[in-house]
Amino acid sequence: MPRIFVLDSEVHPGTLTLTNEKARYLATVLRCREGDALTVKDNKGGSYAGTIIVVGKKEVTIEIRQRQELDTESPLGITLLQSMLKGEKMDFVIQKATELGVREIRPVITGRSQVPKTRKLPRWRKIAEEAARQSGRDTIPEIIEPEDFHSLFSGKSPVPGGIVFWEKGGEPLPDVLEKFRGASAISLLTGPEGGFSETEIAQACKKGFVTATLGKRILRAETAAITAVSIVQFALGDLGTITPPCSSSPCGR
User: Fold this and answer.
1) pTM higher than 0.85 for the full model?
2) Tens digit of pLDDT for each residue in 82-107?
3) 41-58 core/surface letters (b: 16 or more CB in 10 A; e: else)
4) Long-range contacts for 66-71 (Cβ within 8 Å, ≥24 apart)?
5) Cα(first)–Cα(last) distance of the chain, in Å?
C-alpha cells in the first residue's frame, strides 16, 4: 500500500487535497485510481488510513478515514554523523541510510572534507522523504544543517558517545558492538574521502566514542557509511526481522 507524507496541519477529519509533486506522484507514477487505499503520514509521526476519491491531472483528493497504529521504525535510534562527501555520494548515503532506518543524519565538515560548504539541505530532505516513502517508513529522518566537526561536541546539540569508524585502526567491530548491547540509541561517525585526522579521532574518543575498524580492506567513504549502518542495524536494531508480505501492486490492486 502506498504512503504519502504531508504536514500535520494538512491532516484533519474529512478530505485532503494534494497538488503539484505529490499529486503527480500518486496519479502518474503510481497510477492510482479512485477507490484505491493508501496511508497518509504526517511529519509528527501520525498515520491515517485514506481512500482516493478524486484523481485529476493536477489534484488528488483523499478521504481520511481513521488513525492507524503502524510500526516500521527500528527500536534503535541511529544518528549518522556523516562527513561531507563530493558530488552525488552524499545523496546516495542519505537515501540508503534512510532506507536502513537511520533516525537522524547530521552532515559534518571535517578537516579533510572536500565540500566545506553546501546549499543542498532542501535536496537532501527531499531525497530522505522519497526514500522513506519508498521503503515504507513511518517517519522521515531529520537532516540538519552541516556543522563543523568540533561543534559536534561543544555546540547546542552535542552528540552522545558512539562508534567512530577509522581505516587506520580500532577495535574489531564485533567487540565494539558488545559495548552497546541493549542501547536504545547510538551515534555512528563516518569519515570523508580523505579520512579522519588523528587529532579528530583523539577528540572523538575523548568525548566517549569508541574507534572501530571495518576490516582489512579500505572502503570508499560512501561504502563504509552504508556498511556501518547495516551492520549496526542488524546487530542492535531490527534489520532481518520478519515483516508481513505486501501487495506487489503499488496501489493495492
Assistant:
1) no
2) 999 988 999 999 999 999 999 999 99
3) bbeeebbbbbebeebeee
4) 68/39, 70/39, 70/138, 71/138
5) 9
